[in-house]
Amino acid sequence: MSVKIRLQRHGKKGKPFYWVVAADARSKRDGKYLEKIGTYNPNTNPATIELNLDSAVKWLHNGAQPTDTAKAILSYKGALLKHHLDGGVRKGALTQEQADAKLATWLEAKTGKVDAKKDGLSKAQADAKAKALKAEQEVNAKRIAAAAQAEADAIAAATPAVEEETEAIAEEAAAEENNEETQA
Fold first, then answer.
1. 79-91 vs 96-183: helix crossing angle, rounded to 10
2. What is this structure's pTM?
3. For 5, what's the count of Cα atoms within 13 Å in the CB-facing half-sphere?
4. Which of 87, 92, 122, 143 is buried most, with the most CB atoms less than 10 Å from its CB?
């Protein structure tokens, strides 16, 4: 029986979520599996990968062949490096302590890169949010200024008409007084 390390799809339509499993090569994609090794969620940025490193290395030692995507995931999490270093320990090229130290330094560097990417993404998101807020504030300021200008124009347009009416009434009153005086 040949064993493959592959992805098993779960999740709803348009929102995939995968299990990383060791399964018989003849079984269906989402069918029977031998052991669940981890999970992979491509919906987040960066993708969320949880992997049982020891279990994955055990299956690699037993001859399991990873698919292309599973191989990329195992490489990303360091399972292939640990398998490689264990081969060096078996051959006598390294001691177990040296192999563990190399794996630990590699994992620290990888964690640093992932954290840097997360920080960069959060900073970019915060910058985009601040830029959108500033643009919205500018639009609101322009809208308020336009409303104030329109209100001032309306008041200015109404004021001369009121003054003209007042002048006309005053002229009529003066004319009536003159008429009353002449009639008297």
1. 170
2. 0.67
3. 30
4. 87
